[in-house]
Protein backbone atom coordinates (compact mmCIF):
# COMPACT_ATOMS: atom_id res chain seq x y z
CA UNK A 1 0.00 0.00 0.00
CA UNK A 2 1.15 3.52 -0.75
CA UNK A 3 3.00 5.27 2.04
CA UNK A 4 1.75 8.82 1.85
CA UNK A 5 3.82 11.91 2.52
CA UNK A 6 4.03 12.83 6.20
CA UNK A 7 1.99 15.99 5.98
CA UNK A 8 -1.45 17.23 6.90
CA UNK A 9 -3.87 17.28 3.95
CA UNK A 10 -5.45 20.62 3.14
CA UNK A 11 -8.69 21.04 5.01
CA UNK A 12 -10.84 21.58 1.96
CA UNK A 13 -9.93 18.12 0.72
CA UNK A 14 -9.84 16.04 3.90
CA UNK A 15 -12.01 12.97 3.42
CA UNK A 16 -13.79 11.01 6.14
CA UNK A 17 -15.00 7.43 6.13
CA UNK A 18 -18.63 7.27 5.02
CA UNK A 19 -21.15 4.46 4.80
CA UNK A 20 -23.89 3.79 2.27
CA UNK A 21 -26.08 0.90 1.18
CA UNK A 22 -27.39 -0.26 -2.16
CA UNK A 23 -31.17 -0.11 -2.33
CA UNK A 24 -32.91 -3.45 -2.07
CA UNK A 25 -35.95 -4.99 -0.41
CA UNK A 26 -33.95 -8.09 0.52
CA UNK A 27 -32.91 -8.88 4.07
CA UNK A 28 -29.96 -7.03 5.49
CA UNK A 29 -28.49 -10.42 6.36
CA UNK A 30 -27.73 -10.86 2.64
CA UNK A 31 -25.64 -7.69 2.53
CA UNK A 32 -21.89 -7.83 1.93
CA UNK A 33 -19.45 -5.23 3.15
CA UNK A 34 -17.15 -3.37 0.74
CA UNK A 35 -14.30 -1.03 1.59
CA UNK A 36 -13.03 1.27 -1.16
CA UNK A 37 -9.68 2.95 -0.59
CA UNK A 38 -9.46 6.37 -2.18
CA UNK A 39 -6.46 8.11 -3.67
CA UNK A 40 -5.75 10.04 -0.48
CA UNK A 41 -5.81 6.78 1.54
CA UNK A 42 -9.14 7.55 3.18
CA UNK A 43 -11.85 4.90 2.87
CA UNK A 44 -15.49 4.54 1.95
CA UNK A 45 -17.35 1.71 3.64
CA UNK A 46 -20.49 0.32 2.01
CA UNK A 47 -22.86 -2.63 1.99
CA UNK A 48 -24.06 -4.21 -1.24
CA UNK A 49 -26.46 -6.94 -2.29
CA UNK A 50 -25.41 -10.02 -4.18
CA UNK A 51 -26.85 -8.66 -7.43
CA UNK A 52 -25.42 -5.13 -7.06
CA UNK A 53 -23.45 -4.15 -10.16
CA UNK A 54 -20.11 -2.41 -10.31
CA UNK A 55 -21.66 0.81 -11.61
CA UNK A 56 -23.29 1.31 -8.21
CA UNK A 57 -19.91 1.69 -6.50
CA UNK A 58 -18.51 3.90 -9.24
CA UNK A 59 -21.53 6.21 -9.13
CA UNK A 60 -21.50 6.53 -5.36
CA UNK A 61 -17.82 7.42 -5.23
CA UNK A 62 -18.26 10.00 -8.00
CA UNK A 63 -21.32 11.42 -6.23
CA UNK A 64 -19.40 11.55 -2.96
CA UNK A 65 -16.68 13.60 -4.62
CA UNK A 66 -19.18 15.52 -6.81
CA UNK A 67 -16.93 14.34 -9.62
CA UNK A 68 -18.10 15.32 -13.11
CA UNK A 69 -15.24 14.00 -15.25
CA UNK A 70 -15.89 10.36 -14.34
CA UNK A 71 -14.53 8.61 -17.39
CA UNK A 72 -10.88 8.75 -16.29
CA UNK A 73 -11.48 6.68 -13.15
CA UNK A 74 -12.19 3.10 -12.18
CA UNK A 75 -12.19 0.67 -9.26
CA UNK A 76 -9.43 -1.91 -8.99
CA UNK A 77 -9.25 -5.06 -6.90
CA UNK A 78 -6.87 -7.99 -6.44
CA UNK A 79 -8.07 -11.60 -6.42
CA UNK A 80 -6.71 -14.35 -4.10
CA UNK A 81 -4.14 -15.32 -6.78
CA UNK A 82 -2.73 -11.75 -6.60
CA UNK A 83 -4.10 -10.95 -10.05
CA UNK A 84 -5.30 -7.38 -10.47
CA UNK A 85 -8.62 -6.55 -12.14
CA UNK A 86 -10.70 -3.52 -12.99
CA UNK A 87 -14.26 -3.75 -11.69
CA UNK A 88 -16.66 -4.08 -14.61
CA UNK A 89 -19.61 -1.68 -14.25
CA UNK A 90 -22.21 -3.86 -15.98
CA UNK A 91 -21.56 -7.07 -14.05
CA UNK A 92 -22.54 -8.16 -10.57
CA UNK A 93 -19.82 -7.36 -8.04
CA UNK A 94 -20.20 -10.68 -6.23
CA UNK A 95 -19.74 -12.62 -9.50
CA UNK A 96 -16.54 -10.72 -10.29
CA UNK A 97 -14.95 -11.18 -6.87
CA UNK A 98 -13.27 -14.55 -6.36
CA UNK A 99 -12.81 -13.99 -2.65
CA UNK A 100 -15.34 -14.01 0.17
CA UNK A 101 -16.67 -10.78 1.67
CA UNK A 102 -15.78 -8.37 3.10
CA UNK A 103 -14.31 -6.97 -0.12
CA UNK A 104 -11.53 -4.41 -0.42
CA UNK A 105 -11.08 -2.32 -3.57
CA UNK A 106 -9.23 0.81 -4.67
CA UNK A 107 -10.45 3.89 -6.54
CA UNK A 108 -7.79 4.79 -9.11
CA UNK A 109 -7.13 6.66 -12.35
CA UNK A 110 -7.79 4.16 -15.13
CA UNK A 111 -7.26 6.35 -18.20
CA UNK A 112 -4.71 9.14 -17.90
CA UNK A 113 -5.71 12.40 -19.65
CA UNK A 114 -3.49 13.02 -22.66
CA UNK A 115 -3.34 16.77 -22.08
CA UNK A 116 -3.80 18.19 -18.54
CA UNK A 117 -4.74 21.55 -20.07
CA UNK A 118 -7.98 19.98 -21.29
CA UNK A 119 -9.07 18.87 -17.80
CA UNK A 120 -11.95 21.15 -16.87
CA UNK A 121 -12.38 20.56 -13.13
CA UNK A 122 -9.87 21.35 -10.37
CA UNK A 123 -11.06 18.24 -8.51
CA UNK A 124 -10.14 16.04 -11.48
CA UNK A 125 -6.68 17.61 -11.59
CA UNK A 126 -6.26 17.05 -7.86
CA UNK A 127 -7.20 13.36 -8.11
CA UNK A 128 -4.83 12.92 -11.04
CA UNK A 129 -2.14 14.64 -8.98
CA UNK A 130 -2.70 12.12 -6.16
CA UNK A 131 -2.44 9.25 -8.64
CA UNK A 132 0.80 10.54 -10.12
CA UNK A 133 2.19 11.05 -6.62
CA UNK A 134 1.51 7.35 -6.02
CA UNK A 135 3.10 6.43 -9.35
CA UNK A 136 6.23 8.37 -8.39
CA UNK A 137 6.46 6.69 -4.99
CA UNK A 138 6.03 3.20 -6.44
CA UNK A 139 8.65 3.81 -9.12
CA UNK A 140 6.23 3.63 -12.03
CA UNK A 141 6.89 7.15 -13.31
CA UNK A 142 10.52 7.02 -14.44
CA UNK A 143 12.40 10.26 -15.01
CA UNK A 144 15.79 11.96 -14.98
CA UNK A 145 17.38 13.42 -11.86
CA UNK A 146 16.40 16.98 -12.79
CA UNK A 147 12.80 16.00 -13.57
CA UNK A 148 12.59 14.03 -10.32
CA UNK A 149 13.79 17.05 -8.34
CA UNK A 150 11.22 19.30 -10.01
CA UNK A 151 8.37 16.84 -9.44
CA UNK A 152 9.40 16.43 -5.82
CA UNK A 153 9.52 20.20 -5.33
CA UNK A 154 6.02 20.56 -6.81
CA UNK A 155 4.73 18.01 -4.29
CA UNK A 156 6.39 19.84 -1.40
CA UNK A 157 5.05 23.20 -2.60
CA UNK A 158 1.54 21.75 -2.95
CA UNK A 159 1.63 20.25 0.54
CA UNK A 160 3.58 22.87 2.53
CA UNK A 161 3.31 26.08 0.54
CA UNK A 162 6.22 28.53 0.36
CA UNK A 163 9.50 27.73 2.06
CA UNK A 164 9.71 29.30 5.51
CA UNK A 165 13.02 28.98 7.41
CA UNK A 166 11.18 29.37 10.72
CA UNK A 167 8.86 26.44 10.00
CA UNK A 168 11.01 24.19 7.84
CA UNK A 169 14.13 22.79 9.53
CA UNK A 170 17.24 21.78 7.63
CA UNK A 171 16.11 18.22 6.84
CA UNK A 172 12.42 18.94 6.28
CA UNK A 173 12.39 17.16 2.91
CA UNK A 174 13.50 13.92 4.60
CA UNK A 175 10.08 13.80 6.29
CA UNK A 176 8.49 13.28 2.88
CA UNK A 177 8.43 9.83 1.31
CA UNK A 178 8.23 10.93 -2.31
CA UNK A 179 10.47 8.44 -4.15
CA UNK A 180 11.20 4.75 -3.52
CA UNK A 181 14.88 5.66 -3.20
CA UNK A 182 15.49 9.20 -2.01
CA UNK A 183 19.12 10.28 -1.87
CA UNK A 184 20.42 13.29 0.05
CA UNK A 185 21.61 14.76 -3.24
CA UNK A 186 18.06 14.61 -4.60
CA UNK A 187 16.64 16.10 -1.42
CA UNK A 188 19.06 19.03 -1.59
CA UNK A 189 17.99 19.73 -5.17
CA UNK A 190 14.32 19.56 -4.19
CA UNK A 191 14.97 22.09 -1.41
CA UNK A 192 16.75 24.40 -3.87
CA UNK A 193 13.84 24.36 -6.32
CA UNK A 194 11.26 24.69 -3.55
CA UNK A 195 13.04 27.73 -2.12
CA UNK A 196 13.86 29.58 -5.31
CA UNK A 197 11.59 28.56 -8.19
CA UNK A 198 8.14 27.75 -6.82
CA UNK A 199 7.58 30.54 -4.30
CA UNK A 200 4.13 32.06 -4.55
CA UNK A 201 2.50 29.06 -6.22
CA UNK A 202 -0.80 28.03 -4.65
CA UNK A 203 -1.45 24.29 -4.12
CA UNK A 204 -3.59 23.95 -7.29
CA UNK A 205 -0.92 25.72 -9.37
CA UNK A 206 1.86 23.50 -7.99
CA UNK A 207 -0.25 20.40 -8.63
CA UNK A 208 -0.98 21.55 -12.17
CA UNK A 209 2.70 22.18 -12.85
CA UNK A 210 3.43 18.64 -11.71
CA UNK A 211 0.86 17.36 -14.21
CA UNK A 212 2.38 19.42 -17.00
CA UNK A 213 5.80 17.91 -16.35
CA UNK A 214 4.60 14.36 -15.70
CA UNK A 215 2.55 14.05 -18.88
CA UNK A 216 5.67 14.67 -21.01
CA UNK A 217 7.45 11.60 -19.59
CA UNK A 218 7.50 8.29 -21.47
CA UNK A 219 6.07 6.30 -18.56
CA UNK A 220 3.20 8.70 -17.84
CA UNK A 221 0.05 6.62 -17.53
CA UNK A 222 1.88 3.31 -17.98
CA UNK A 223 0.50 0.51 -15.82
CA UNK A 224 3.33 -2.01 -16.39
CA UNK A 225 2.42 -5.61 -17.22
CA UNK A 226 5.43 -7.96 -16.81
CA UNK A 227 5.91 -10.36 -19.73
CA UNK A 228 8.57 -12.14 -21.75
CA UNK A 229 9.09 -11.53 -25.45
CA UNK A 230 9.77 -14.19 -28.09
CA UNK A 231 13.44 -14.40 -27.01
CA UNK A 232 12.58 -14.89 -23.34
CA UNK A 233 13.67 -11.39 -22.36
CA UNK A 234 11.70 -9.75 -19.55
CA UNK A 235 9.66 -6.81 -20.82
CA UNK A 236 6.94 -4.56 -19.49
CA UNK A 237 3.91 -3.75 -21.61
CA UNK A 238 1.68 -0.74 -21.18
CA UNK A 239 -1.01 1.35 -22.81
CA UNK A 240 -1.00 5.13 -22.98
CA UNK A 241 -2.91 7.85 -24.79
CA UNK A 242 -0.33 7.58 -27.58
CA UNK A 243 -0.56 3.83 -28.06
CA UNK A 244 0.90 0.46 -27.09
CA UNK A 245 4.36 0.60 -25.48
CA UNK A 246 7.03 -1.96 -24.61
CA UNK A 247 9.85 -1.36 -22.13
CA UNK A 248 12.99 -3.33 -21.40
CA UNK A 249 14.37 -2.04 -18.13
CA UNK A 250 14.03 1.74 -18.27
CA UNK A 251 14.18 1.93 -22.06
CA UNK A 252 11.16 2.09 -24.33
CA UNK A 253 11.81 -0.22 -27.28
CA UNK A 254 8.41 -0.12 -29.01
CA UNK A 255 5.64 2.41 -29.49
CA UNK A 256 2.80 1.46 -31.80
CA UNK A 257 0.37 4.34 -32.06
CA UNK A 258 -3.30 3.50 -31.76
CA UNK A 259 -4.12 4.22 -35.43
CA UNK A 260 -1.45 1.63 -36.34
CA UNK A 261 -2.77 -1.07 -33.97
CA UNK A 262 -4.92 -3.38 -36.07
CA UNK A 263 -5.83 -6.03 -33.52
CA UNK A 264 -5.19 -7.19 -29.96
CA UNK A 265 -5.80 -10.83 -29.08
CA UNK A 266 -4.74 -13.51 -26.61
CA UNK A 267 -4.52 -17.30 -26.56
CA UNK A 268 -3.78 -18.98 -23.26
CA UNK A 269 -0.77 -17.17 -21.81
CA UNK A 270 0.26 -15.48 -25.09
CA UNK A 271 -0.73 -11.92 -25.95
CA UNK A 272 -0.55 -10.70 -29.56
CA UNK A 273 -0.36 -7.20 -30.96
CA UNK A 274 -0.96 -6.96 -34.70
CA UNK A 275 -0.08 -3.59 -36.13
CA UNK A 276 1.91 -1.55 -38.60
CA UNK A 277 5.55 -0.60 -38.03
CA UNK A 278 7.52 1.34 -40.63
CA UNK A 279 4.71 0.77 -43.15
CA UNK A 280 4.96 -3.00 -42.70
CA UNK A 281 2.44 -5.23 -40.97
CA UNK A 282 3.93 -6.92 -37.92
CA UNK A 283 2.79 -9.21 -35.12
CA UNK A 284 4.40 -9.02 -31.69
CA UNK A 285 3.92 -11.89 -29.24
CA UNK A 286 4.43 -11.76 -25.47
CA UNK A 287 4.11 -14.44 -22.83
CA UNK A 288 2.51 -13.80 -19.44
CA UNK A 289 2.81 -15.83 -16.26
CA UNK A 290 -0.81 -17.05 -16.22
CA UNK A 291 -3.85 -17.13 -18.53
CA UNK A 292 -5.61 -14.76 -16.11
CA UNK A 293 -2.78 -12.24 -16.43
CA UNK A 294 -2.96 -12.53 -20.21
CA UNK A 295 -6.70 -11.93 -20.27
CA UNK A 296 -6.32 -8.93 -17.96
CA UNK A 297 -3.60 -7.53 -20.24
CA UNK A 298 -5.84 -7.96 -23.28
CA UNK A 299 -8.83 -6.32 -21.58
CA UNK A 300 -6.70 -3.34 -20.55
CA UNK A 301 -5.45 -2.99 -24.12
CA UNK A 302 -8.91 -3.15 -25.68
CA UNK A 303 -10.37 -0.69 -23.18
CA UNK A 304 -7.51 1.79 -23.59
CA UNK A 305 -7.69 1.62 -27.37
CA UNK A 306 -11.44 2.24 -27.30
CA UNK A 307 -11.15 5.10 -24.79
CA UNK A 308 -8.44 7.03 -26.60
CA UNK A 309 -9.96 6.38 -30.03
CA UNK A 310 -13.23 7.92 -28.84
CA UNK A 311 -11.32 10.89 -27.43
CA UNK A 312 -9.58 11.47 -30.79
CA UNK A 313 -12.82 11.03 -32.74
CA UNK A 314 -14.60 13.56 -30.51
CA UNK A 315 -11.75 16.03 -30.97
CA UNK A 316 -11.97 15.88 -34.76
CA UNK A 317 -15.79 15.96 -34.62
CA UNK A 318 -15.84 19.20 -32.62
CA UNK A 319 -12.96 20.58 -34.68
CA UNK A 320 -15.02 19.98 -37.84
CA UNK A 321 -18.08 21.60 -36.26
CA UNK A 322 -15.99 24.64 -35.33
CA UNK A 323 -14.68 24.98 -38.87
CA UNK A 324 -18.19 24.58 -40.25
CA UNK A 325 -19.51 27.24 -37.87
CA UNK A 326 -16.74 29.69 -38.79
CA UNK A 327 -17.33 29.03 -42.50
CA UNK A 328 -21.07 29.72 -42.15
CA UNK A 329 -20.40 32.91 -40.19
CA UNK A 330 -17.95 34.16 -42.82
CA UNK A 331 -20.41 33.32 -45.62
CA UNK A 332 -23.20 35.20 -43.84
CA UNK A 333 -20.99 38.23 -43.30
CA UNK A 334 -20.00 38.16 -46.97
CA UNK A 335 -23.66 37.98 -48.01
CA UNK A 336 -24.60 40.88 -45.74
CA UNK A 337 -21.70 42.94 -47.05
CA UNK A 338 -22.65 42.26 -50.66
CA UNK A 339 -26.26 43.31 -50.08
CA UNK A 340 -25.42 46.70 -48.56
CA UNK A 341 -25.94 49.73 -50.86
CA UNK A 342 -22.76 51.14 -52.31
CA UNK A 343 -21.84 54.53 -50.88
CA UNK A 344 -20.55 57.29 -53.13
CA UNK A 345 -16.97 58.27 -52.65
CA UNK A 346 -16.06 61.91 -52.11
CA UNK A 347 -14.06 63.57 -54.82
CA UNK A 348 -11.77 66.50 -54.34
CA UNK A 349 -12.78 69.26 -56.79
Automatic annotation (TrEMBL):
Keywords: Membrane, Transmembrane, Transmembrane helix. One of its GO terms (molecular function) is cytoskeletal protein binding. It is a single-pass membrane protein. Residues 32-312 form the FERM domain. Gene3D superfamilies: 1.20.80.10, Phosphatidylinositol 3-kinase Catalytic Subunit, Chain A, domain 1, Pleckstrin-homology domain (PH domain)/Phosphotyrosine-binding domain (PTB). The chain crosses the membrane at residues 306-327. One of its GO terms (cellular component) is membrane. It holds the Pfam family FERM_N. The keyword RNA-binding does not apply. Its main location: membrane. InterPro entries: Band_41_domain (IPR019749), Ez/rad/moesin-like (IPR000798), FERM/acyl-CoA-bd_prot_sf (IPR014352), FERM_2 (IPR035963), FERM_central (IPR019748), FERM_CS (IPR019747), FERM_domain (IPR000299), FERM_N (IPR018979). It is found in: Membrane. Putative tumor suppressor gene that may be implicated in the origin and progression of lung cancer. This is FERM domain-containing protein 3.
